[in-house]
Specification:
This protein is mainly α. Helix content is 56%, strand content 4%. The protein has a two-stranded antiparallel ribbon. It starts with a strand and ends with a helix.
């Protein structure tokens, strides 16, 4: 099957074969920039800043999506009837968010 002149694998076996071929080519390109036939290979040098960004992204991705302590506090306040939000303030904040402010 082709989409925009790009050939896509039709079966899972083809996907697996392409993945293993890509892995082999990546590992050979890491070996000093020379392939097995002695010719030069393309190399990629990742800057220190890029490596730091990848590390930070990994750290960020490991953070929980929710603030567990805040959620438990609000849950308890709602169950006990102590939570009384200002509906006008909530509506105003929601409108600002939706307008991109």
């Amino acid at each position: 099957m082709k989409i925009n002149d790009v050939e896509l694998p039709a079966t899972p076996k083809e996907v697996k074969t392409r993945k293993s071929e890509n892995a082999k080519s990546r590992s050979s390109s890491r070996s000093g920039g020379i392939d097995s036939s002695g010719g030069k290979r393309d190399q990629i040098n990742i800057s220190v800043a890029s490596q730091q960004m990848q590390t930070l992204k990994g750290n960020y991705d490991s953070l929980p999506d929710i603030k567990v302590d805040r959620v438990s506090y609000l849950k308890q306040a709602i169950e006990s009837g102590e939570y009384k939000p200002d509906y006008h303030e909530v509506a105003g904040a929601l409108l600002k968010y939706l307008q991109g402010e």
